[in-house]
Design a protein that fits this description.
single chain; Aspartate Aminotransferase, domain 1; 15 helices; 42% helix; 13% strand; binds pyridoxal-5'-phosphate
């Protein structure tokens, strides 16, 4: 196993018929079997392309496709996908009993997820995505008319609309910190938030890594700022889990909502919400059903009755998959690809980089535009000529309020991507910049 692996546990089963338990044990054994060839490689391997090619071989991505859009949704690795299929089979074969067996994995998964986040299991709720976590926080806090919530400039709608809804409904006031694109330093970002805080600020809500430019926010310093003013800091971490080796405790924030189907490559419909022990008494659950009150910890936030337990159960395998590689190793790979891309792209005439190459301000996402070339043309050129798939980030497209005029594409480079794919992006930019196409 890799450096920080919580291990592929065969414990944690709850009681059940032997046949049902055998189904789960077989799925876990098949998962372990398909991971063996990458776990047994000596450490020296782990830095070179051969190792990453083996990891890439664990994905079901279409032959030749350069998928550079983990920022929207990530691919499920084959061992995780196969486990997921087995779990659905278990549900079809013996719905109630097997449902209970899969649901019975929840606390073990919570434990593994907590280890990934660097927090305690009783501070973690298993939800569907970051949108649900952000909404739960915005809806569940006690806020009075006139209380202020300070947001970042480029928040995803899932961390803006829930607060705007409360503004409509309860008369809270939503403000935004004005940050440059890209900011020149973490201090510039911090100062923008300092300038936005007033005596009525109760919450600072901000993305750890924004969805438009992939810029990292100094959330640790912003949390200190919030606490110094008697406010709390609620972070939208949809883009960070599985991209960088997180330690949410160290960040000192009050809540942290994340999604597992982006950089963690878990099946779609998995997310986590961290709520500090101190805040749990003051944050109400959104959905209430039987026995929610009996849970004196973050489990009260994920009592939502029946859910697709195979999907939740496969979250364990996605966590195990990345643990087998190692979170630090993944971060290094992600940063290596992204900083190479940004460094080379910066030298191409006409390229506008919206993402800083300062490692304190960026991770695995890069937004860029090209003078005289529309984002749509750039995106299609990459797709048609090089089979590279990216996301558009253009004016008026979902972010009409963006005052900095981000007008380009967003590229996510994950551990299964290659330098060859990055070179293809650079070739496309050079060809388009030369005007000869
Ligand atoms: C910063 C940020 N927050 C929230 C979300 C929403 O994520 P989900 O759709 O998984 O809830 C996204 C998705 O792109 C995002 O980039």
């Amino acid at each position: 196993m890799g450096d920080e692996s919580p291990g592929i546990s065969r414990r944690g089963f709850i009681g059940g018929a032997p046949a049902a338990l055998a189904g789960l044990a077989a799925a876990k054994e098949a998962f372990a079997q398909s991971m063996r060839d990458i776990e047994s490689l000596p450490p020296a391997w782990h830095t070179d392309e051969g190792y990453w090619a083996k990891i890439r071989g664990k994905f079901l991505l279409q032959e030749g496709l350069g998928y550079l859009n983990n920022g929207t949704v990530g691919p499920t690795p084959k061992p995780v996908f196969e486990a997921l299929v087995e779990y659905w089979r278990m549900m079809a074969e013996n719905p109630n009993e097997n449902s209970a067996i899969l649901q019975g994995r929840s606390d073990l998964i919570r434990q593994k997820a907590a280890q990934f986040l660097g927090v305690a299991p009783d501070e973690v709720a298993i939800l569907r995505n970051a949108t649900e976590g952000n909404s739960l926080v915005a809806r569940g806090l006690e806020l009075a008319r006139g209380d202020e919530v300070l947001l970042g400039y480029l928040e995803h709608d899932s961390n803006r609309q829930p607060w705007l809804l409360r503004a409509k409904r309860d008369g809270i006031v939503v403000k935004e910190a004005e940050v440059g694109t890209p900011p020149k330093s973490p201090d510039e970002v911090l100062k923008a938030f300092e300038a936005g805080v007033t005596g009525r600020t109760r919450v600072i809500g901000v993305a750890h890594c924004d969805t438009v430019t992939g810029t990292f926010t100094p959330v640790k310093e912003i949390a200190k700022l919030a606490h110094g003013k008697g406010a709390i800091c609620c972070v939208d971490g949809a883009q960070t889990l599985g991209m960088v080796a997180l330690n949410v405790r160290d960040l000192g924030v009050d809540t942290y909502a994340t999604t597992c189907h982006k950089w963690l490559c878990a099946p779609a419909g998995t997310g986590l919400l961290y709520v500090s022990r101190e805040l749990q008494d003051r944050l109400w659950p959104n959905i209430a059903t039987e026995d929610w009150w009996a849970h004196k910890d973050a489990r009260k936030y994920d009592r939502v009755s029946r859910r697709p337990w195979p999907v939740v159960a496969a979250l364990e395998d996605a966590l195990d998959f990345q643990s087998a590689i190692g979170r630090t190793r993944i971060e290094q790979r992600v940063r290596g690809l992204a900083s190479y891309l940004r460094g080379q792209a910066a030298a191409i005439p006409g390229v506008r980089l919206y993402t800083s190459n300062d490692p304190r301000l960026s991770g695995g996402m890069t937004s860029l535009g090209l003078d005289g070339v529309s984002p749509l043309r750039l995106r299609e050129y990459l797709r048609q000529r090089f089979d590279i798939y990216t996301a558009e980030r253009r004016k008026g497209n979902r972010y009409p309020a963006d005052p900095h005029g981000v007008d380009g594409i967003r590229l996510s480079t994950h551990f299964y991507n290659t330098f060859e794919q990055v070179e293809k992006v650079l070739s496309a930019l050079r060809e388009l910049a030369s005007g000869k196409t």
